[in-house]
Design goal:
This protein has five helices and three strands, in the order αααβαβαβ. Strands 1-2-3 form a three-stranded parallel β-sheet, with helices on one face. Helix 4 runs parallel beside helix 5. It has a single domain, classed as Rossmann fold (3-Layer(aba) Sandwich). The chain is globular, with a radius of gyration of 15 Å. The chain is an alpha/beta fold and 143 residues long.
């Protein structure tokens, strides 16, 4: 779920690609680049907590919609690949790839080695948008 100070995509929209994109388009523009706002972004990301199911599809569509405001933007999708709520599957990832390409957004995939991440489908998304795929070994964290 996209959750912020007052931003949330309603769960009843999780299964409609266009519905999620339309709702995401309502999210205010941050008005600054990552380059100038990285400190506050790190604090925001550091405060993220997990709960409930993973709505990978709606999060991806929302990210593409937001990143697409500046052509050439890049998304790094960090996932365990367990999309268990909302849109997912080959048809969805193909549609998401086309949406990202239309908006000039590159999507890279970062997953954990040994998890059940569906890199077959997610990898196509990354490769077709010019992004990359990387599986990292959690045992190497902190080394």
């Amino acid at each position: 779920m996209l959750k912020g100070k007052s931003t949330r995509i309603p769960p009843n929209l999780y299964y409609g690609f266009e519905d999620v994109a339309k709702e995401a388009a309502k999210i205010r523009d941050f008005g600054v680049s990552v380059q100038t706002s990285h400190v506050s972004l790190l604090k925001l990301v550091g405060g993220i907590t997990t709960y409930g199911c993973t709505a990978l599809g709606p999060a991806l569509v929302t990210s593409i919609e937001l990143a697409g405001r500046a052509r050439g933007s890049k998304i790094v999708l960090c996932t365990d690949g367990m999309a268990n709520q909302g849109m997912n599957g080959p048809e969805f990832y193909n549609k998401a790839a086309n949406y990202a390409k239309d908006k000039g957004v590159m999507v890279s995939i970062l997953s954990i080695k040994g998890d059940s991440c569906n890199l077959k489908e997610l990898g196509k998304l990354g490769l077709s948008t010019g992004g990359s795929m990387l599986k990292i070994d959690p045992h190497l964290f902190g080394s």
